[in-house]
UniProtKB/TrEMBL annotation:
GO terms for molecular function: ATP binding; UDP-N-acetylmuramoyl-tripeptide-D-alanyl-D-alanine ligase activity. Keywords: ATP-binding, Cell cycle, Cell division, Cell shape, Cell wall biogenesis/degradation, Cytoplasm, Ligase, Nucleotide-binding, Peptidoglycan synthesis. Residues 14-59 form the Mur ligase N-terminal catalytic domain. Belongs to the MurCDEF family. MurF subfamily. InterPro entries: Mur-like_cat_sf, Mur_ligase_C, Mur_ligase_C_dom_sf, Mur_ligase_cen, Mur_ligase_N, MurCDEF_CellWall_CoF430Synth, MurE/MurF_N, UDP-N-AcMur_synth. It is an enzyme of class 6 (ligase). It comes from Capnocytophaga ochracea. This is UDP-N-acetylmuramoyl-tripeptide--D-alanyl-D-alanine ligase. Involved in cell wall formation. Catalyzes the final step in the synthesis of UDP-N-acetylmuramoyl-pentapeptide, the precursor of murein. NCBIfam families: murF. Pathway: Cell wall biogenesis; peptidoglycan biosynthesis. SUPFAM superfamilies: MurD-like peptide ligases, catalytic domain (SSF53623), MurD-like peptide ligases, peptide-binding domain (SSF53244), MurE/MurF N-terminal domain (SSF63418).
Length: 444
């Protein structure tokens, strides 16, 4: 059945899952969700130009136009794995609690300087997004970079079974999605499923030698390409500054890498190269350093790595440094968990050129039984320092014991915010995705 579907797929314009943006001559997959049933839109998809529809409810079958399967999502995943095996394209898997998307985009920016790359769009990193990414691989694609997200045990292992990565990197492991993982130990185990897969299949791990948690997951596995600030690594990377992040890198690699990639090895000397990024914060240093390691591993030139780093501009409310009147806004409102919130506060403290520092912080979601404890910990950290202003938004922050203004809803704070006046301040805006705090300055 998959073979038959694959023949239709390679003669089509790709895959569509939403009738609002059907690509002509694509195959429509009738996915289901909590509030929708894609089967009911199969006829509409065909009318809008889809050449075929994959369904899992007999009532919507149309002769010669639909393929009836047991489960549409499973079929999509099987098709993606089949396609990935057919083309034999190299696949990089990336996971972690923080920095997945930024790291993925940096690696893409670097490798794209000399290689044909496809990568996860945005953060489509779940059991639907991963197969959709794999299905964008073309015969000319050198490498696919696949971001893998999870909020429950076993999910990374499952995504690995779909993508079958040849290489993998864990960005960091922190207190994210504690509600689903049950504990910090659950986070470590689940993120480590990527390394478990790579070790079982004798694949290559790219590792940050300075991260003690991810290093511990390696055990005695030796197919590792490492980077870090210390000695004994394949690629040495130093942080020169964090506002913005400026790095210096040199190559100390003695091992060979995958054959068939550009043989240009300019820069493989002891001479260090400096690259200045558009990112801020010490927490972004390792994201950038990882992109250097991947560039070195795949034999890119020094100039290509430098250009890839310097040309990447953050978007989507991720560590964006914006001017807002006389103020500078550090907009980091895409997501938040205790680890990333702490890192953002530490970064703000390090920005010594700004005497007036303001924090607008929103709730951190998916912490379960740890919610009260973790929000109070953030408040306690804030009270150790002097700030020009602190504003806490959300039900969890509202319940903390805090010497700062607290607002239960975004709308409540928004009314107050309209009448606040900031001058020559550095303003951190950070919260979980559901808080959507970027709305505060969206029309400013």
């Amino acid at each position: 059945m998959i073979e038959e579907l694959y023949q239709r797929y390679i003669n089509s314009a790709g895959v569509s899952t939403d009738t609002r943006n059907i690509t002509p001559n694509s195959i429509y997959f009738a996915l289901k969700g909590a509030s929708f049933n894609g089967n009911t839109f199969a006829q509409e998809a065909l009318a809008k130009g889809a050449c075929y529809a994959v369904i899992d409810e007999p009532a919507y079958h149309i002769a010669d136009k639909t393929l009836l399967v047991d489960d549409v999502l499973t079929t999509l995943q099987q098709l993606a794995t089949y396609h990935r095996r057919k083309l034999k394209t190299l696949v990089i898997g990336i996971t972690g609690s923080n920095g997945k998307t930024t790291t993925k985009e940096l690696i893409k920016s670097v490798l794209s300087q000399q290689l044909n790359i496809v990568a996860t769009q945005g953060n489509l990193n779940n059991n639907i997004g991963v197969p959709l990414t794999l299905l964008t691989i073309k015969p000319e694609t050198d490498i696919a970079i696949v971001e893998m997200g999870a909020n429950h045990p076993g999910e990374i292992a499952f995504l690995c079974s779909i993508a079958e990565p040849d290489y993998g990197y864990i960005t960091s492991i922190g207190k994210a999605h504690l509600e689903g993982f049950g504990s910090f130990e659950g986070v470590i185990k689940t993120k480590g499923e990527l390394y478990d897969y790579l070790k079982t299949h004798h694949k290559t791990i790219i590792a940050n030698a300075d991260n003690l948690i991810t290093e511990a997951l390696l055990g005695n596995y030796n197919n590792v390409y490492s980077f870090g600030v210390g000695e004994g690594v394949n690629v040495s990377v130093q942080c020169l500054s964090t506002q913005p992040v400026k790095i210096q890198f040199a190559d100390s690699s003695l091992q060979t890498t995958t054959e068939g990639f550009p043989a240009n090895i300019e820069g493989f000397t002891d001479t260090a190269t400096v690259a200045t990024s558009h990112l801020v914060g010490s927490y972004n240093f390792t994201n950038i350093a990882a992109s250097v390691a991947f560039g070195r591993y795949f034999k890119l030139s020094t100039k290509a790595i430098q250009k890839g780093i310097e040309s990447y501009i953050p978007q989507n409310n991720r560590s964006q440094l914006l001017q807002w009147g006389s103020n500078t806004v550090l907009l980091d409102a895409y997501n938040a968990n205790p680890s990333s919130m702490t890192a953002a506060i530490d970064n703000l403290l390090s920005m010594n050129s700004f005497p007036n520092k303001v924090l607008i912080l929103g709730d951190m979601f998916e912490l379960g039984d740890y919610a009260t404890q973790e929000h109070q910990s953030i408040v306690d950290k804030l009270t150790e320092h002097q700030w020009a202003g602190v504003y806490l938004i959300g039900k969890n922050f509202k319940q903390t014991k805090a010497p700062y203004p607290q607002y239960e809803t975004f709308e409540e704070f928004q009314e107050v915010f309209k009448n606040l006046s900031f001058q020559d301040s550095l303003i951190l805006i950070k919260g979980s995705r559901g808080m959507a705090l970027e709305r505060l300055i969206a029309n400013s």
